[in-house]
Amino acid sequence: MTWLSWLGRRFTSARALCVVLLLALLFFRVTDPLALEELRLRTFDIFQVIKPRVATLRPAVIVDIDEASLRKLGQWPWPRTRVADLITSLTKLGAAAIAFDIVFSEPDRLSPALAADLYRNLDEETRNKLRALPSNDQVMAEAIKQSRRVVLGETGLPTVQPLSDAQPLPVGVGSVGGDPKSFVYSFPGLLQNVPVLENAAAGRGLFTVLPERDGIVRRVPMVLEAQGKILASLSFEMLRVATGNSTILVRMNQAGIKAVALPGFEMPTDSKGRLWVQETRICASVPRSKNWRCM
Question: DSSP letters of the chain?
């Protein structure tokens, strides 16, 4: 019996089919075609409908600048003295971290010194008094310093921007197992806040998000690269500030990013440092009832 006949007996059609299927699955796993990505996203959507996460607590609160706020307090942008009052109030209410998904990239045009040159029919004494007052940005920066828990938002841009002369934060971003720059989303430019605000903040994070092919945001990056630097997302930077840590660690393996971590806490991500966002059903107890109502 030749070795070919022996191999033919051993290598039955069933085994051949298994090998073909294994090679096909390996091919799809390596190439990750659009059809497979679409199937992955639709399966995730189905899981969201079947079993959304139920949250009975509300540790995160959105302070929304909505139409009702604009009707009551006036058109946007508000003077930053008003934003300073908001920071002070939230701090007194016990907020562990306060984050803005807004970039204050230009000086406040409502500052007193600018008003001194803008308003007509002011006598010189009044103009001098206005010029002597602190700017609205300085007032907001002082509120940020007093709070010690404010995270300012930044965003990535498609073109290189002149960086501000703000002092770098004493925060270390390290990696174990490789260089994350080959895997994270990268932006040539970075839009920052005015330096007086950046210098006062306890943290700075990117709120840039990238939707899927159908325009829906299902995954949010926890770390990104902007203008050559690895930076944390706004949400992960909030977690760092709230826990009082000064180090962010990116864990790598051969496939890419494995997790992002703080001392004593690790968050698994996909290979690009993204976190799948699970839909949350907010539940509240119904008065005079032992039941819960979810929405």
Answer: --HHHHHHHHS-HHHHHHHHHHHHHHHHHHH--HHHHHHHHHHHHHHHHHSPEEES----------HHHHHHH-SSSPPHHHHHHHHHHHHHTT-S-EE-SS---S--TT-HHHHHHHSSS--HHHHHHHHHSPPHHHHHHHHHHHHS-EEEEEEEESS--PPP-PPPPS-EEEEESS-GGGTS-EESEEE---HHHHHH-SEEEE------TTS---EEESEEEETTEEEEBHHHHHHHHHHT--EEEEEEETTEEEEEEETTEEEE--TTSEEE---EEEEEEPTTSS-EEE-
Both structure tokens of 204:
């700075």
Q: Are 183 and 229 in contact (CB under 8 A)?
A: no
The overall pTM is greater than 0.85: no
pLDDT tens, residue by residue, 203-239: 999 999 888 888 888 889 999 999 988 999 999 999 9
* 155, 206 Cβ separation under 8 angstroms: yes
Residue 225, burial from CB neighbour count under 10 angstroms (0-12, 13-18, 19+): buried
pLDDT tens, position by position, 241-254? 999 999 899 999 98
Task: Report residue 52 as tokens.
Answer: 């959304």
- Asked if 269 and 222 touch (Cβ cutoff 8 Å), the reply is yes
State residue 156 phi and psi, 5-degree precision: -80, 145
pLDDT band of residue 196 (cuts 50, 70, 90) is very high
